[in-house]
Design goal:
Keywords: Lipoprotein, Membrane, Palmitate, Signal, Transmembrane, Transmembrane beta strand
Subcellular location: Cell membrane
Largest sheet: 6 strands, antiparallel
CATH superfamily: Outer membrane efflux proteins (OEP)
Radius of gyration: 38 Å
Structural class: alpha+beta
Mean pLDDT: 83
CATH class: Mainly Alpha
Distance between the termini: 49 Å
Number of helices: 11
GO molecular function, one term: efflux transmembrane transporter activity
Oligomer: single chain
CATH architecture: Up-down Bundle
Membrane topology: Lipid-anchor
Strand content: 5-15%
Family: Belongs to the outer membrane factor (OMF) (TC 1.B.17) family.
Order of helices and strands: EEHHHEEHHHHHEEHHH
Low-confidence stretches: 7-15
Length: 488
C-alpha cells in the first residue's frame, strides 16, 4: 500500500502561527464536510427479500378467539402454577441467558463500529535524564509531550456500511432473544400440560386399581365359598397386578416431567413440586385465538424470520465494507508536540512547540489478492444468509401448517372421545352389576374394564394434545413479541 501525506507544519511560539492554525483548521474542516457530503457508496444496495408463501393456508384455520388475545395469552390460562414456572424460566433458563449475552456482545460491537465514524485522539508524554559523559555532575533532563489526532473520511461509504452491518446484527440478536423467550415459554407450558395429563392418567389408574382389587377380593370370597372356580381368582389377581404396574409406570413418567421442569426453570425440585401442588389434577385448557388469513402476515411476524432477515441485511452491508476497503482511503492527521530540555540547577536550555496537520491518502497497490478474497468471502456470506432466510421461511410455513392440521384433528377427535368415555363408563357399570349377579363372566367384565380405562386415557391424552397444539400454534406464529416490541 502506498501512503501519501501532505502535511503543514508550524511553530506555535507566536500568535501569527496560532491564527494560521485556526484558519487552516477551519478550511480543512469545511473541506472534510464537503467530501463527506459528496462521498459515494460502493457495493450493492440492500432490499429486503420478499417472503415467498402461498396465497392462503391449506390447512383449516381455527375460528374462535381474537388475534389480540396473543398479547396476554399466557395470563389467559388463569393458572398461577404455569405463570410462576414461566417467570422462573425467563430468569434462569440458560438459553435465554445466552441470548442476552449475545445481545450485549452485539451492542458492544455496534458501539465500537460507530466509533470508527468519529475522530480519534491519543496523547503521550515522556521524560529522560542523562548524566554528562565527561565525568561532571551536570545532568540533562528532557521532556516531550505529544497529542495525535486522526479522522478517516468515509469516501466510499465503508464506515457507514460497517455501522449498518453492526446495527443489523444487534437487531438480529435481539430478535433471537425474543425467539428464545417464546420457545422456552412454550416448552415450559407443554411440559406442564404433559405433567397435568400424567397426573390425570395416574388418578384414573389409581381408580382402576381400586376397582380391580375390589373385584379380586369379591372373587376370592366366591371361590372360597365354592361358588366360583379357582381359575377366576387367578384372572382377577392378575388383573389387579397389571393395574398396579401400570400405575407405577405412570408415576415414574410424572416424575420425569418434573425433572424436565426443573431443568427448564432453574428451580430446585422442592420448589417445583411446591408450585405443582397447586391446581393438582386439573388439566389446563388453552385459550383460543384467530389467525390472519394471509400466510405472509403470519410468517413475517415470527422473530426467527425477522432475525434471519436482519442477518441477511448485515451480510449485504459487509459486502459494501469489503469493497470500500479495496479503494483509496483518505484521513486527516494532526499532531501537536511540546518539548523542553533542562540542565540540572539551571533554567530551561531549550523549549518549544510544534504542530502538523494535513490529509493522508493511502492507495492499495498490491496485497496478493487479500482484499479481493475478503470481498469474495463477504459475497459468499450473503449467499449463505439468503439461503438460510429462505430455509427459515419454508420451515416456518411447514411448522404452522403442521400445527394447524394437528389442532384441527385433535378438536374433531375430542368430541368423539367425550362420547366414547361416557358410553364405556356406562357399559362397564352395567357389566359390573350384571357380573355380581352372575349374568356376565369375569372375562367380559375385564374386557369392559379395559375399554373403559382406554377411553378415559384416550380422552386425557386428547385434552393434552389439544392444549399443546394451541401452544405449538402460538409458538409457530411467533407469539406476541412483535406487539410487545411495538408497545415498548
Amino acid at each position: 500500500m502506498y501512503i501519501f501525506n501532505a502535511t503543514m507544519q508550524a511553530n506555535l511560539s507566536d500568535s501569527r502561527s496560532s491564527k494560521c492554525i485556526m484558519k487552516i483548521t477551519l478550511k480543512l474542516a469545511l473541506l472534510a464536510c464537503s467530501i463527506i457530503s459528496t462521498a459515494c457508496a460502493v457495493g450493492p444496495k440492500y432490499n429486503s427479500p420478499t417472503t415467498q408463501t402461498a396465497p392462503e393456508w391449506y390447512a383449516a384455520l381455527p375460528h374462535n378467539g381474537k388475534t389480540t388475545d396473543l398479547v396476554n395469552w399466557w395470563q389467559s390460562f388463569s393458572d398461577s402454577s404455569l405463570t410462576r414456572l414461566q417467570q422462573a424460566a425467563e430468569l434462569n433458563n440458560p438459553s435465554i441467558a445466552q441470548a442476552v449475552a449475545r445481545i450485549d456482545a452485539a451492542r458492544a460491537a455496534s458501539g465500537a463500529t460507530n466509533g470508527n465514524m468519529l475522530p480519534t485522539i491519543n496523547g503521550s508524554a515522556s521524560q529522560t535524564r542523562n548524566n554528562g559523559d565527561d565525568g561532571s555532575d551536570i545532568a540533562r533532563r528532557s521532556r516531550l509531550g505529544m497529542i495525535d489526532a486522526s479522522w478517516e473520511i468515509d469516501l466510499w461509504g465503508g464506515l457507514r456500511a460497517g455501522r449498518r452491518a453492526s446495527d443489523a446484527q444487534l437487531a438480529a440478536r435481539t430478535m433471537e432473544w425474543h425467539a428464545a423467550r417464546t420457545s422456552i415459554a412454550a416448552e415450559v407450558a407443554q411440559t406442564y400440560v404433559a405433567y397435568r395429563a400424567c397426573q390425570a392418567q395416574s388418578a384414573a389408574l389409581q381408580s382402576d386399581v381400586v376397582s380391580r382389587e375390589e373385584t379380586a377380593r369379591l372373587t376370592d370370597l366366591l371361590v372360597h365359598a365354592g361358588f366360583n372356580a379357582p381359575a377366576e381368582s387367578y384372572l382377577t389377581d392378575a388383573s389387579a397386578a397389571t393395574g398396579r404396574q401400570q400405575q407405577v409406570a405412570m408415576a415414574a413418567e410424572c416424575d420425569l416431567s418434573i425433572k424436565s421442569l426443573v431443568a427448564l426453570t432453574g428451580l430446585s425440585e422442592s420448589e417445583t413440586r411446591d408450585i405443582l401442588a397447586k391446581n393438582a389434577g386439573i388439566q389446563p385448557r388453552a385459550p383460543e385465538f384467530t389467525l390472519a388469513a394471509l400466510p405472509v402476515d403470519i410468517i413475517s411476524q415470527r422473530p426467527d424470520v425477522a432475525a434471519a432477515e436482519r442477518t441477511l441485511a448485515a451480510a449485504s452491508a459487509q459486502i459494501n465494507v469489503t469493497q470500500a476497503a479495496r479503494l483509496p482511503r483518505l484521513a486527516l492527521l494532526g499532531n501537536i508536540s511540546f518539548f523542553g530540555i533542562q540542565l540540572s540547577g539551571g533554567a530551561p536550555q531549550a523549549s518549544g512547540k510544534s504542530w502538523s496537520f494535513g490529509p493522508s491518502l493511502s492507495l492499495p497497490i498490491f496485497d496478493a489478492g487479500q482484499r479481493a478474497a475478503q470481498a469474495d468471502i463477504a459475497k459468499a456470506g450473503y449467499a449463505e444468509a439468503l439461503a438460510n432466510y429462505k430455509q427459515v421461511v419454508v420451515s416456518a410455513v411447514k411448522e404452522v401448517e403442521s400445527t394447524l392440521i394437528t389442532l384441527d384433528a385433535a378438536q374433531k377427535r375430542l368430541r368423539d372421545a367425550h362420547t366414547a368415555k361416557d358410553k364405556f363408563d356406562k357399559y362397564f357399570n352395567a357389566s359390573l352389576a350384571r357380573q355380581r349377579v352372575g349374568s356376565v363372566s369375569l372375562l367380559e367384565l375385564e374386557d369392559a374394564r379395559r375399554n373403559k380405562l382406554s377411553a378415559e386415557q384416550n380422552l386425557i391424552n386428547l385434552k393434552r394434545e389439544y392444549t399443546t397444539s394451541w401452544i405449538a400454534l402460538y409458538k409457530a406464529v411467533g407469539g406476541a413479541w412483535l406487539t410487545q416490541t411495538q408497545q415498548s
